[in-house]
Amino acid sequence: MDLRERLQAALKAAMREKDAVRLGTLRLINAALKDRDIALRAEGREVGDAEATAILSKMVKQRQESARAYEEGGRLELAEKERAEIAVVEEFLPRQLTEAEVEAAIDAAIAETGATTIRDMGRVMGHLKAKHAGQMDFGAAGSAIKSRLG
C-alpha cells in the first residue's frame, strides 16, 4: 500500500472514530500533497513517495519549531497540540535510523562517492538524501560529514 492509500485509509478511520485532531492533521497532509501536485501539473507528473516523504519531514520540522516557540511563550496547550500533530505525521514517515545506522550510512556514502575533502560534502549529502530521505536528520548528518571530511 503506497503512502496516499495509507493516508486515505487513515482519513476514513479518523472520520469514523470522530478523532478531530487526527482528522485535521490528515487533512493538512492531504492539502500539502495536493498543493505540490498542482505545482507539478505543469511538468505532467504527480508527487511520488520520496517527495511526499520530504514534504512530511518538513511538516514535522515546522511543528517542532512551533512547539518550541509555544513552550518558550508559555503556551503549553498549543505546544501539546503541535506534538499531537507531529505524532500523526510521523506515522507516515519511514522508520528513523539509529545513531549507529546514521554513522554507517555516512561512512558508506563517503566511500561510495569517493569524497576526500570538505568540497565533496555536497555529493555526500546528495547521496544520503537519495538513499535515506525522511530517515535521518540531515542537519546533524551534515556536521558529522564535516568532521570526517574537514
User: What share of the residues does DSSP label as strand, in percent?
Assistant: under 5%
Q: Write down the secondary-structure element order.
A: HHHHHHH
Largest sheet: none
Multimeric organization? single chain
Shape field: globular
CATH level-4 homologous superfamily of the largest domain: Uncharacterised protein YqeY/AIM41, N-terminal domain
CATH topology of the largest domain: Hypothetical Protein Yqey, Chain: A, domain1
Rounded radius of gyration (Å): 18 Å
Number of distinct helices: 7
Would you tell me the overall average pLDDT? 90
Structural class based on helices, strands and sheet pairing = mainly alpha
Number of strands: 0
What's the CATH first level of the largest domain?
Mainly Alpha
Describe this structure as you would to a colleague.
With 150 residues, the chain is mostly helical. The protein has helices at residues 3-17, 20-40, 49-72, 76-90, 99-113, 121-131, 138-149. The longest helix is centred in the middle third of the chain and has 24 residues, at 49-72.
Features:
Hypothetical Protein Yqey, Chain: A, domain1; 2 domains; single chain; 150 residues; Arc Repressor Mutant, subunit A
Brief digest:
This protein is mainly α and about 150 residues long. About 75% of the residues lie in helices and about 0% in strands. It has two domains: about 5-90, Orthogonal Bundle (Hypothetical Protein Yqey, Chain: A, domain1), CATH 1.10.1510.10; about 100-150, Arc Repressor Mutant, subunit A (Orthogonal Bundle), CATH 1.10.10.
